[in-house]
Give the backbone structure.
Amino acid sequence: MKQSKLLIQTLREVPRDAEVVSQQLMMRAGMIQKLAAGIYDYLPLAFRSIRKFEEIVREELNKDGCQELLMPMVQPGELWQESGRWQFYGKELLRFQDRKGADFCLGPTHEEVITDIVRRNVRSYKQLPMNLYQIQTKFRDELRPRFGLMRGREFIMKDAYSFCVDDADADREYWVMFNAYKRIFSRLGVKFRSVEADSGAIGGSFTHEFQVLAGSGEDAILSCNNCEYTSNIDKTEAPLVPGQDHGPAFELKKDHFCTPGVVGQVEQAAGMQDADHDGMPISQTSKFFLYLCTFFDGSTKLVGAVLRGDHEVNLVKVKNYAGAMALELMPIEEAEAFTGAKSGFMGPVGLKNVQFVVDRSLQSAVNLTCGANRTDYHHFGLDPARDLPGCTFADIRMAAEGDPCPRCGKGTFEAFRGIEVGQVFKLGTKYSKSMGCTFLDENQLEKPMVMGCYGIGITRTVVAAIEQNYDADGIIWPWPIAPYQIHLLNLDPSNADVNVIANRLEKELEAAGFEVLHDDREGMSPGAKFKDADLLGFPLRAMVGSRGLKEGVVELRDRRTKDVRKFKPEHMVAETKMARDRILLELEEAGGR
RNA sequence: CGGGGCGUGGCUCAGCUUGGUAGAGCGCUCGGUUCGGGACCGAGAGGUCGGAGGUUCGAAUCCUCUCGCCCCGACCA
């Protein structure tokens, strides 16, 4: 391909809208353009990468017997009403009506449609298990699209759905997909982790996310440095810390400590003074949050969460504990009115119509401090089990880096940030039951199929690969998804000899199976071509110039290592093959787990 | 949806406070000199200043409304 004819405009300056590195580089390299908030044009270079990754996904899924199909992006509202999601899916679901006034939506996901397909075509256990997938554009009307393709409203996703006869077979299929995902991301050469995750409102027994490690990632991950336990921090089981001995329990001493005007947990603890104490240890204090929970039936309830002063609350855990559809921190004015105290002095004792949940690290704790619901005052001597009638203990705190691992008991947690590029999910019978997707088993019993769903964000994965592979000069493409593998630079198109060699090398390399972009642009200095080549970041750069030809050599440069080799033009194909083999070997060694 | 910010050639921005014939750099076209890490000279093309209304002799600039976009937060498969 001649670069002079390629649809591309590289930019020297960073577009103003671009925040994260991948977005900046993709826009500067002329790969994407924004059309509207969270909606992008995929220009030829980006599209080549996307297609290449799709092919990797197809190859690996087809190995496991998955069948590809394509469902409509526009879906009838009827199906969503049948599954019940028409009312529960929020504004992320873009709804509209056709000319007859019938409800439709743009598909953010395809459980309804695939379930409809299967229930109309599959009747017998003999046809199961079945795993169907598509690679398609999804639309989710995100409240806040951001970071370019990382969180767009429109994006390309591979979604697969499995249908099995029973729970055990669904589990088997889940792990088949889990392993397929490991192969897929390993082939990319990106560093990734498979992490245990929260199953969220969909409900389901378990789920794993595949996270590409990157400092700019939106998700926090904790991984044990000794065993395999790796999880999204939303889900990470907090270890039980050894019970602290705060002496023999005494009665609740109301309004015992007075720290007027002091805000902040640490400062308040330091200011708690009496005859026996010159400040309290932070771990002997407690903190308290009031949450307004909304349930699926529309009802609401107040939940009060109590944690040790030095622990952070995990909202997902609180939400799951309460079984709520949504949960929000009570607005500060309302909370102050409800408790009768300013922020910082609210506490659980004496509050009515609140369901208390206490973090399990306080299971047997006594002699804690807590807000007195009187501005400037704290109680002393809190014993949650005694002073909060009806309270329950549960794991509601955020696990933290350095916490001992509760699984193996030997290691400690290390923290990472990740970009979620895939998820495997055991759905169970939620959709098959509500939509009547059943089969007859060998005993002629009608049963709902047990489902699983499996997503890979195609566009997001390409973005994540860039987030993990770039330097100050531009992108450094992993070989398997590089738009082109070789960037052939003609450094002097005005020289006839150089042109002959450059054109010949282009043909030879392409004949050898390489994908070549030939920068044949005239009137451009070598320096400018080097800058563009670094920005586009193809793995290998081949160069032909009059200076080299005087000595009878052309060059090959590795984008990542910057190593340059010089040799006679007739050795180009052989040298390129060697360079490719070396890059692919490194890639294999760099894979995640 | 709350808070903050920005809309001026393809891109990055200046001009706005204090109203008076719309600018720079990059990119693009043509000619010439250059040619191994974003060369230089000359000549060009390209803009309803996001939109509507208002004030004014006169609005990119002042006022009102509106649309779009970005960031933080909340939300979220």
